[in-house]
Design goal:
This protein has 274 residues and is an alpha+beta fold. It has one domain. The protein contains five helices and twelve strands. A hairpin with a 7-residue loop joins strand 2 and strand 3.
């Protein structure tokens, strides 16, 4: 009897669930990748290509646009672009760009901060796409500042077909047509117009038709003629004598000066030795 009561009072202990030690690692992995990315960017800021004038000795306003190949395999398809401005008598540059890291940290992909404008981008050397200086640049800088604050896609980032960093730079360039910016044809996202299908190119001149950045055509006196298929653009610019190809960008024709062409030697004559 006592043995039966003892059995009734006994409560089986539930087996202990095995702890998943990989779950904390999976949760910390995105944060670790973001921290690694930030460390790489800080290290790249120490390396620059010296395309921007020193603000310590340059008093006039400066407006520049840069582009560099994306990180990893994405660099074969596209590049990252940003705008750097320096108002009159400013002691540092302000850089306007869109990054997915900013969207993860603050919920807004637009990054406006003071940094070296011509620093390497994840190991890739930047290329100067536009450079404008002088007193007339002051009003352009103000327009860029106001437009960046009202960017429609500040809470959204899609590497393909957009909106991305190139969408943002094209959006800013449209409000300053005086810059006449010609973004490279492999700047995926520059043709993304959102719900609109008709608009102006990044240069601010001409005509552009685009269906969500996947299919479209562009005609402009600055960019020439471009055809966009699935975000990849190709075309030619008769005004700059260049062909535009996906993956390669702009291929410009070599120009030979007239004074560099050797004079023809008359028939029967011999060239004098130096």
């Amino acid at each position: 009897m006592r043995h039966a009561q003892w059995l009734k009072s006994f409560k089986p202990v539930a087996p202990e669930r095995k702890r998943d030690v990989t779950q904390p690692l999976r949760e910390k992995r995105p944060l670790a990748n973001t921290a690694l990315s930030m460390r790489e960017r800080r290290q790249n800021l120490l390396n620059r290509v010296n395309l921007a004038p020193s603000p310590a000795i340059t008093a006039e306003p400066v407006l520049q646009v840069y582009g560099a190949r994306c990180r990893g395999w994405r660099g074969f398809f596209s590049l990252h672009t940003w705008i750097a401005v320096k108002p009159a008598a400013a002691k540092a540059y302000t850089v306007y760009e869109v990054t997915p890291e900013a969207l993860l940290r603050r919920g807004c992909c637009v990054s406006i901060r003071k940094r070296v404008p011509d620093a390497y981008w994840y190991g890739a050397a930047p290329e100067l796409l536009a450079d404008k200086r002088g007193d007339a640049v002051g009003p352009l800088i103000e327009r860029i500042r106001d437009t960046a604050q009202e960017y429609r896609y500040a809470g959204k980032y899609l590497m393909w077909p957009g909106p991305n960093s190139n969408t943002f730079i094209a959006h800013l360039a449209r409000v300053v047509p005086e810059l006449e910016l010609e973004l490279p044809c492999h700047a995926i996202g520059k043709d993304y117009l959102g719900l609109k299908s008709v608009g102006r190119p990044a240069s601010g001149s001409g005509f552009q038709f685009s269906l969500f950045g996947l299919l479209g055509i562009l005609v402009s006196r600055v960019e020439g003629i471009e055809l966009n298929v699935l975000g990849l653009s190709c075309g030619f610019n008769p005004f700059a004598a260049c062909v535009k190809l996906p993956f390669f960008g702009h291929i410009r024709a070599s120009r030979v000066r007239i004074d560099e062409i050797p004079a023809a030697v008359p028939a029967g004559a011999t060239e004098a030795a130096d």
